[in-house]
Amino acid sequence: MSIKVSSLTKVYGTQRAVDGISFELKKGEIVGFLGPNGAGKSTTMKMVTGYLPPTSGTAQVCGFDIEKEPMEVRKRVGYLPEANPLYYDMYVREYLEFSAGIHQLGKEAKTRIEEMISRTGLGKEAHKKIGMLSKGYKQRVGLAQAMLHDPEVLILDEPTSGLDPNQIVEIRDLITSIGKEKTVLLSTHIMQEVQAMCSRVIIISSGKIVADDSIDKLQQSNNKQGAVIVSFDSKVNEQLFKQLKNLQRYESQGQNSWKFYTNKPDELRREVMQLSLQHDISISSMQTETQSLEDVFRTLTKQP
User: What is the mean pLDDT of the chain?
Assistant: First the structure.
């Protein structure tokens, strides 16, 4: 496992910011780490990177314990915090040279710096001071720094925060490319970003994990009232719909197409198939309409 978290807890006074959470990430996964403000996302990331000590529980990165072997963990983690900590008076290449020195890259430093400048699209801006760059290019410098030592794991906290739509797409494409060869734990409030990049989602609320699954499965399992949209090849007698036990209500979509509302979409799909066979009705298409990821997020993180 690239990341293994077991019963990880962080307590501040009387507040349990992170409350006994556990999860695992494999190599090649891009996992969205979601939660409302104050849920414990950034605190978890800081513990996994070794920036904060846990109150209890453990975490391992590439088999190394965050408390017992912190330097080994740091060698294998690239971290971009939400508040991108850059030295604005440094030039881009100068800053990366400084970072390479911290990571003790030695003879590899020059090659890696040029590679990261190219990969993050910083070529035209590398001669400038960081303070002169736009927010998007500052984020690129942060990503270049995080990847400079070729870590096996990348932990990114709100990497597209404050960027314009074009910059978001560029950073998204870069992260997707990185995720093919590394493990990426990504925190963001932008659900479109999660759906575009992530193979899996972990949702945390009030310090506890409330969901950990693929996006498709989360949308299906949390669908309190879904719908099945069915298109028939010819006109169908509506009276036949009374035979569908899991049908709550229905409405016409025009052109022999119907929207069937249900809280058991899988069972209803089977019933529709049986109905079509019994009455020799041809179905041209049938699809399940599920909740959006945003709806799932709001349902799971809603406070009582």
Answer: 90
Nearest to 205 by CA among 35, 7, 20, 22: 35
Q: How far apart are CA 215 and CA 225, in angstroms?
A: 17
Q: Which pLDDT belongs to residue 271?
A: 94
Say what the alpha-carbon torsion angle 121, 127, 133, 135 is, to the nearest 10 degrees. 30
User: Are 186 and 197 within 8 A, CB to CB?
Assistant: yes
Length of the chain: 304
Question: Hey, what are 211's tokens?
Answer: 């969901």
- Name all domains of the chain by residue range, CATH numbers in brackets: 3-89+140-213 (3.40.50.300), 224-295 (3.30.70.250)
What do you get for the CA distance between the two ends of the chain, in Å?
Answer: 35
Report the distance separating Cα 191 and Cα 255, nearest Å.
33
Question: For 54-73, what is the mean pLDDT?
Answer: 95
- Is residue 163 very low, low, confident or very high in pLDDT (cuts 50, 70, 90)? confident
Confidence label for 223 from pLDDT (cuts 50, 70 and 90) = low
Nearest one of 62, 68, 58 to 18, comparing CA atoms? 58
Q: How far apart are alpha carbons 298 and 101 in whole angstroms?
A: 44
Q: Which residues contact 37 (CB under 8 A, 6 or more apart)?
A: none
Of 132, 95, 136, 86, residue with least CA distance to 113: 95
Which is it for strands 153-157 and 77-80: parallel, antiparallel or unpaired?
Answer: parallel
In the predicted structure, residue 287 carries a pLDDT above the cut 60 = yes
Residue 125 clears pLDDT 90, i.e. is over it: yes
Q: Tokens for 207, please give them.
A: 């310090």
Task: Answer whether residue 144 shows pLDDT above 80.
Answer: yes
**Are 77 and 145 contacting, i.e. CB atoms less than 8 angstroms apart?**
no
C-alpha of 302 from chain center: 19
